[in-house]
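Subject: design request, 303 residues
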């Protein structure tokens, strides 16, 4: 378990070390990443479906997930509000031309991960026999996914120097990390897990395909499902609050999306907050995408 938790860091940094210039290859990597995400989530659902006593644990999982989402939401919003007060950011006027169709499409796309897990859960519970090799397959798939994501981050046409110099984006990212860890500290007596495991649960930052598998391998499929749902709900909640908050409190709107602010929630950030919010969101999401696997790997290695 400890080795797996630490090994996930290697492919991410290996991918980031490689520079590619072939656009066709990068397009292929993009579609491969998308397919791997849903494959890994289906494996997570499969593990849940084949878990002993699943029906008796659903109530506990729902309550654990709910308290995790609520405490982290409050902690993140409080921390990001303080950052907003300290470093106020004034976005452009909202773009009112964005129709409901595009927004609804994004919102419905956020439900696809849930569908992938549900399909895996149904297959595991009703149809497929126990597959002891599924966990190892999920580990190797995740390592390949992280390698390809490292390639994407390196070859996204972004200047690492400019990202690291974006003080607003870096400040938002660090405040999200700090407030999430503080929220995790509050959850230690509630969740009944060792402190390092609770903090690992709080370190997904919206990256559900990573947190679900990593936590699931370390703590079991039930906690993997809790971690996955927590981070999927972060993405869905972010889609709901970004248009409402970005005009007056952009740091809170951008920051709560976590790692998704550089990809999935970026179109809503752009259309609701204007171009000035884009580099801030990318810098914040980029840093959180690196910190999430690092923090989870290090924290779980302390078990």
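Subject: RE: design request

Done. Sequence follows.
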């Amino acid at each position: 378990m400890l080795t797996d938790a630490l090994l996930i860091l290697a492919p991410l940094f290996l991918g980031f070390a490689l520079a590619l210039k072939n656009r066709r290859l990068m397009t292929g990597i993009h579609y491969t990443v998308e397919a791997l995400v849903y494959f890994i989530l289906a494996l997570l659902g499969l593990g849940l479906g084949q878990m002993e006593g699943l029906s008796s644990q659903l109530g506990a999982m729902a309550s654990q997930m709910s308290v995790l989402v609520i405490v982290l939401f409050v902690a993140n919003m409080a921390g990001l509000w303080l950052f907003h007060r300290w470093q106020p950011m004034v976005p452009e006027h909202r773009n009112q031309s964005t129709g409901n169709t595009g927004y609804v499409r994004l919102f419905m796309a956020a439900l696809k991960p849930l569908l992938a897990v549900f399909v895996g859960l149904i297959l595991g519970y009703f149809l497929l026999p126990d597959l002891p090799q599924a966990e190892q397959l999920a580990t190797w798939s995740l390592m390949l996914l992280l390698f390809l994501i490292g390639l994407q981050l390196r070859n996204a046409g972004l200047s690492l120097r400019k990202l690291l110099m974006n003080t607003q984006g870096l400040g938002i990212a660090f405040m999200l990390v700090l407030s999430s860890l503080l929220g995790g500290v509050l959850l230690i007596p509630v969740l009944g897990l060792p402190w390092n495991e609770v903090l690992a649960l709080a370190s997904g930052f919206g990256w559900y395909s990573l947190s679900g598998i990593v936590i699931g391998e370390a703590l079991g499929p039930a906690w993997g499902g809790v971690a996955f749902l927590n981070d999927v709900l972060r993405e869905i909640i972010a889609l709901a609050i970004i248009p409402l908050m970005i005009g007056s409190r952009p740091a809170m709107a951008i920051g709560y999306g976590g790692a998704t602010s550089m990809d999935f929630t970026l179109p809503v950030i752009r259309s609701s907050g204007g171009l000035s919010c884009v580099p801030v969101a990318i810098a914040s999401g980029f840093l959180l995408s690196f910190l999430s696997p690092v923090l989870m790997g290090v924290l779980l290695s302390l078990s």
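The CA atoms of residues 2 and 301 lie 5 Å apart.
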